[in-house]
Amino acid sequence: MIVFADSPNDPNFIRQMELLPPLYAQFAARDVVLITDTDPANPSPLRHKLRPRGFSLVMMDKDWKSPIRRPSPRAAREVLNTIDKMPIARTEALERNPAGR
């Protein structure tokens, strides 16, 4: 998951970062990596690849494909639901719990 903004003082960035800490344990259980990028003056390779405009919450599979973009902050439940609906997350959940088929 990547959170982009044009500044660390962007209100949307601040709000999103306030919403995420309760999810850190659940992120760890799902192997989610959180990346923030708030410096468009020195564009990172991810910023070059994804080309965000202003605030953007981007969620991607482990294969770095199929980005899901959100232009505004998202609540914890929505973030987890989006992650859990990704094909690779479903496959991993079934591998951990084969009885769930």
Task: Please describe the topology of this protein.
Elements: E1 2-4, H1 11-19, H2 24-29, E2 35-37, H3 45-50, E3 56-59, E4 68-70, H4 76-85, H5 87-96
Parallel strand pairs: 1-2
Antiparallel strand pairs: 1-3, 3-4
Notes on the protein architecture:
The protein has 101 residues and is of the alpha+beta class. The chain has one domain: Glutaredoxin, CATH 3.40.30. A hairpin with an 8-residue loop joins strand 3 and strand 4. The chain is globular. The two termini are 27 Å apart. Keywords: Signal. Pfam families: DUF4174. This is DUF4174 domain-containing protein.
Précis, in short:
This protein has 101 residues and is α+β, with helices and mostly antiparallel strands. The chain is built from 5 helices and 4 strands. It has a single domain (2-100), classed as Glutaredoxin (3-Layer(aba) Sandwich).
Key words describing this protein structure:
101 residues, alpha+beta, Glutaredoxin, four-stranded mixed sheet, 4 strands, 13% strand, signal, DUF4174, DUF4174 domain-containing protein
Portion in beta strands: 5-15%
Do you know the CATH topology? Glutaredoxin
The overall average pLDDT, rounded, is: 87
Number of helices: 5
Shape: globular
Order of strands across the biggest sheet?
Answer: 2-1-3-4
List segments where confidence is low: pLDDT < 50 over at least 5 consecutive residues.
Answer: none
Kindly provide the radius of gyration, computed on alpha-carbon positions and rounded to a whole number of angstroms.
14 Å
CATH architecture: 3-Layer(aba) Sandwich
